[in-house]
Design brief:
Layout (H helix, E strand, L loop, with lengths): L6 H11 L1 H9 L9 H19 L10 H5 L1 H19 L7 H20 L1 H7 L11 H11 L4 H22 L1
Length: 174
């Protein structure tokens, strides 16, 4: 599972260095090379919630209600289809269908959650650093920019809009 040539390590490395390529290759059928998107998302989410449970530090605690914190593992699954939906809407001319955007969104959102886990030790050492965890949202924007074709300005604007609208709607639904 954790060998350097495993699908998990190839997925992690690809999502850190060339994330648009991971999406393209997976959609084009080169799937054996990568971990399954939903399994990757579940694994990253499990690591995040385990870290929160073990440390007692929840980066989102001040922004969420008690009901949401108790059921966060269910609510986090709302983020992926919302992100895929708004990516599809903003990039409708790219030619990808919703299922393809959903697969890529599982990769991106899973890795986003994994990167957010890295802020938990920082918050342990510097409790006032909670807002820094929001910087990881730029990863989602970068993921969309690197995945799509066209003018850079167009990709940046639509990536910011797709990410912002899906994030705002996600927060409003909670």
């Amino acid at each position: 599972v954790f060998s350097l040539s495993s699908p998990l390590s190839a997925t992690f490395k690809g999502l850190m260095t060339n994330l648009g390529n991971v999406g393209h290759e997976y959609i084009e059928g080169k799937r054996k090379k990568y971990y399954t998107p939903i399994k990757y998302f579940i694994l990253c989410t499990a690591i995040y919630f385990l870290t929160v449970k073990l440390t007692g530090i929840d980066p989102d605690a001040e922004y969420t209600s008690e009901i949401i914190r108790k059921n966060a593992n269910y609510f986090v699954f709302i983020l992926v289809p919302l992100f895929a939906l708004f990516t599809k809407l903003f990039f409708y001319k790219q030619g990808y269908n919703f299922a393809e955007y959903l697969a890529y969104s599982f990769f991106l959102c899973g890795h986003y959650i994994l990167l957010s886990t890295l802020y938990i030790p920082v918050m342990y050492l510097i409790p006032s650093a909670g807002l820094l965890s929001n910087i990881t949202i730029l990863y989602l924007v970068w993921g969309l920019v690197s995945f799509h074709t066209g003018s850079l300005l167009h990709k940046i604007i639509f990536s910011i809009l797709a990410t912002a609208v899906s994030y705002v709607l996600f927060v409003l639904l909670l």
